[in-house]
Amino acid sequence: MTPEEILKITLPRERWLVQDFLPNDYMVIIAGEAGAGKSVLMYNLAYAVAGGRAFLGHPTLTARVLYFDEENALPDLKTYNEWAYYGHGAPKLEGLNDRLRIEHFGLGRAWPLNMRKAIEAHHPDLIIIDTASSSFSLKDENDNAEASRVIHTLRTLKPAGASMVVLKHEREPSEFRGRSIRGAKVWLGAFDLVLYHRIAPRAKRRKDGLRKTILEPGKVRGNLITVQCVILDPAFTSTEPKGLILQAEPFVREDE
What we know:
Layout: H1 3-7, E1 16-18, E2 22-23, E3 27-32, H2 38-51, E4 65-69, H3 74-87, H4 93-99, E5 100-104, H5 111-122, E6 126-130, H6 132-135, H7 144-157, E7 163-169, H8 186-190, E8 193-199, E9 213-220, E10 230-236, E11 244-250
Parallel strand pairs: 3-7, 3-8, 4-5, 4-6, 6-7
Antiparallel strand pairs: 1-2, 8-9, 9-10, 10-11
Helix pairs in contact: 2-3
């Protein structure tokens, strides 16, 4: 393209899967601190989008979701799904069965082929991969060249207009380096949005086993200034089977 052609390009307005939180056609990293509950958070997102329910107080666009779970054993997977389903008010299963598909330990060494088959069968608007280290058979988590190959493959697999969320582990933060992901840094440069999910300062586990966490943006592409830092206060429903409700409030970091 010539400079004149580039300058005349009119970019489309952001369309949101989750208003002011997750746009369409984005590559997103959720970097979770150990024990923060990133899988619990992502199953909550999956059921919200597939069921057309609010996520952290934000309206969602009812859409098709494909969740690759290569991290959680079956008992945990069942528990997280129950919490999300009943926490969102037990939406009709007829619609959920059509819009939400969960692939459990289905990738293996031939993960690009198996992922492509699942994507072509389900036609998702949102793809969640839990987690990078267990899904892509990485030989060296710190190898930027290997990470680049994986990212290139993901971009070829992602349907046009769909968003893809990849879960990674957060690197142990330090006073000098701040927050970052564990492993190859090329992930940060290749993705549009990076969110860190961490345990809130001085948050101890309550008697119900839950505690407050924080979800804060790191890298943000474009004009997504509406993606704000929030504190998540989880609570179980009072009825059985129990569901998990995530209340979100704006949070100002102590360094600000």
